[in-house]
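Quick sanity check, TerC family protein:
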Amino acid sequence: MLDFFTTLHWSAVFQIVVIDILLGGDNAVVIALACRKLPTAQRMQGVLWGTAGAIVLRVVLIVFAVALLDVPFLKFGGGLLLLWIGMRLMAPSHESHENIKPADKLLSAIKTIIVADAVMSLDNVIAIAGAAETADPDHRIALVIFGLIVSIPLIVWGSTLVLRMLDRFPVIVTFGAALLGWIAGGLIINDPAGDRWPLLDTPVAEYGAHVAGALLVVLVGLWLKRRMLRREGGGASESGRTH
């Protein structure tokens, strides 16, 4: 056990925890919505069992994702998708959770949490698989599980605090988006399909890809955010004229 912690890739753990906190807000909302009509005595059971089921399912998905990243062009595709996820994080759409129906029975609530988490966790799975790529192959799965164990309680029980921090310090979101871009750049340049070009297999090229990915996400994300705010401002002024 001690060897595990001494050889653990702590920067990857940090990345996984940050990713889960930033991308897991919706999952915390789903848990709250699914359990809100349960009897008070069963709410904590619903949260615990639903979260446990969601963690197990997510670990399975991430195991598959980590394995598939060795297939040529999948890292490249995953990196592109991760770039988009980072940009979307910078300029989130106002999605509602009206389709998450509260359950009045414990098993129904648990099922709702697990199914909804599976549907909504594609971004988490790809991002965490990308973060785990930097670790020792023998430790990747254990790293993912450890990162999830650390971060899931923060999401479930600390979601309100996390959301307040994100509102108060928007730079955290920018940092998180840049982190996703950093991981995406590493995924793209380390795709097995690029092995035929030795120039890409250099520290300078790899570092440049990381930086380029981070900058691309932040710059495009800021542009999308401004565009969205401008559009919302235009819609509000148009609505004001009609009244």
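Posting the structure with no commentary besides this: Residues 8-227 form one domain.
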